[in-house]
Amino acid sequence: MAALSSSVTSRSYRSGYSASFSPVKGNRHRSLSFLSASSPRGLDIHDLCVRFQSKSARASVFMQDGAIVTDSNPTENKSSLKGLKDEVLSVLSQDVAKVGAESDGQNKSTVSITVVGASGDLAKKKIFPALFALYYEGCLPEHFTIFGYSRSKMTDAELRNMVSRTLTCRIDKRANCGEKMEEFLKRCFYHSGQYDSQEHFTELDKKLKEHEGGRISNRLFYLSIPPNIFVDAVKCASTSASSVNGWTRVIVEKPFGRDSETSAALTKSLKQYLEEDQIFRIDHYLGKELVENLSVLRFSNLIFEPLWSRQYIRNVQFIFSEDFGTEGRGGYFDNYGIIRDIMQNHLLQILALFAMETPVSLDGEDIRNEKVKVLRSMRPIRVEDVVIGQYKSHTKGGVTYPAYTDDKTVPKGSLTPTFAAAALFIDNARWEGVPFLMKAGKALHTRSAEIRVQFRHVPGNLYNRNTVSNLDQATNELVIRVQPDEAIYLRINNKVPGLGMRLDRSNLNLLYSDRYSKEIPDAYERLLLDAIEGERRLFIRSDELDAAWSVFTPLIKEIEEKKRIPEYYPYGSRGPVGAHYLAAKHKVQWGDVSLDQ
Ligand SMILES: NC(=O)C1=CN([C@@H]2O[C@H](COP(=O)(O)OP(=O)(O)OC[C@H]3O[C@@H](n4cnc5c(N)ncnc54)[C@H](OP(=O)(O)O)[C@@H]3O)[C@@H](O)[C@H]2O)C=CC1
Ligand SMILES: O=C1O[C@H](COP(=O)(O)O)[C@@H](O)[C@H](O)[C@H]1O
């Protein structure tokens, strides 16, 4: 049996042990990855699911209390698994020791997080609360400092006051919340400066150094500012406020350009000052619990992966809807529109995770390699496969809701779409011919985000006569509800109890609030922690971004150059009727509109 060596990354044990193992000699086990491990910051090496791949087969080994309880592949012989288990346990013990040593080393280093654009909406709404939640959960390093940076004049006390108004406590741990907030706020400071001033960033650097107190300094800059000043801020941060002895990383918020050309130009400018591995392009949908779970669902359950192709799946739908308009963000939104705001990034990222092949390991580069392949296999969207809409004013129950163009920051007569539906195709062996439908809109009747997988009809179905008349309604559908009320449910046909033979559609339902008592962390918490830990899996690499823009750029250009008129839909409605015609053209019914969804 080949000896194993571990190529452990610095990944924490928070979300599953993702170290990969490879044989020192021979080539029998190509890789091992640990799909689950318990306890944050501590690894229970006795309770693991180990998956490994050999030349001939893949197998999963489940260990409980240090003993193999089951293995999923009968072709692997048990005695070799036993030997493997011993080696795994021995390598893991060394890793746990290594992690212990790393955490001792933490005392000598520090992390400084600078929120650039600290006075803004996103900083207040999401970033400071996420940082507090991480602090509350004990996830931030022992030594850390948070700086707010923006042009607004503020003292440290004023920043703390502003931040304190947005902080909330976890429902299950309110007891010492006030105390924790006080401690957290004491670690928050403010520096006022221009985004293009080397001098002001040098002042910031000086203050950071004072707080770092001679430790190895690691610095994270979160660019929470409008995109036209990204490059100025990166230039100043990297030349005047980079760490000299630790790492420097920059989280860049979307939008990453407006099309292929501007995105490439932005990447080029950023790379004048930063290496690709210092750039963390954030798409907060990748930090949502159910989006992260997508790969677990696919790759750790035998029942799904074999069905995950054109052979069994008829169509896949990615649906985003908001029950409010662009209120307050019209100025930004009008320059981008719903296709760039939601589809090109959030929905396309989910699609890539949904459709990618099995990555070699859970390592960030392996996952992103697979996502790029899917994106590069996609056809640019044809204009005839798209419906665009814009919301108009609507009065309901005596309340009048505004039209998009009633927003004072939106130019009169704007044609910017606030709704779009599109059919996309992946030209590869797994997905050829399967429509991937996207639908995204603002000011609709509800707020939700979900993935709907509609399976093919049962061939020669014995029970056709006993099901509901509409064949579409009688086929299986897997629904992954990203928000609200996170859930995964599978719609199956079932016999209605009784002496007759009548079938109905019922749900096998995993509703998170019933199953898990722990509150689901906000996406920004996960992503901030990943950036601090240098985990890039959930951030977008530049080649992914290029491929994503290639799918949408020709379409966006055509819509804008031809000044295509959107279909108007009332505020609070289900959106333009055209979306149904588009789906019907591809022999699909939207899953979210049936009566028993
Ligand atoms: N808000 C949200 O929900 C989301 C935002 N984003 C992205 O995050 C980033 C920040 O968003 P948000 O907080 O809403 O942005 P804001 O418009 O609130 O801007 C953030 C800060 O940047 C400074 N600023 C604003 N406009 C200018 C300007 N023209 N020139 C120089 N400085 C300016 C202001 O600070 P000061 O005047 O004090 O310098 C402001 O407080 C953007 O890239 C946005 O696209 C992404 C997803 C969601
Ligand atoms: O990126 C964006 O996302 C929000 C929706 O995020 P959610 O986490 O609240 O679903 C959207 O409102 C905004 O327009 C867009 O820029």
3D structure, described in words:
Pathway: Carbohydrate degradation; pentose phosphate pathway; D-ribulose 5-phosphate from D-glucose 6-phosphate (oxidative stage): step 1/3. This is Glucose-6-phosphate 1-dehydrogenase. InterPro entries: G6P_DH, G6P_DH_AS, G6P_DH_C, G6P_DH_NAD-bd, NAD(P)-bd_dom_sf. Residues 115-293 form the Glucose-6-phosphate dehydrogenase NAD-binding domain. Residues 296-590 form the Glucose-6-phosphate dehydrogenase C-terminal domain. This protein is α/β, with parallel strands linked by helices. It is globular and about 75 Å long. A hairpin with a 2-residue loop joins strand 5 and strand 6 (67-71). The protein starts with a strand and ends in a 12-residue tail after the last helix. The model is unreliable at 1-77 (pLDDT under 50). The protein contains 15 helices and 24 strands. The protein is 32% helix and 24% strand. Strands 22-21-20-19-13-18-17-14-24 form a nine-stranded mixed β-sheet, sandwiched between helices. NADPH dihydro-nicotinamide-adenine-dinucleotide phosphate binds next to helix 2. Ligand LXAUTJHC is lined by residues 284, 322, 341, 449.
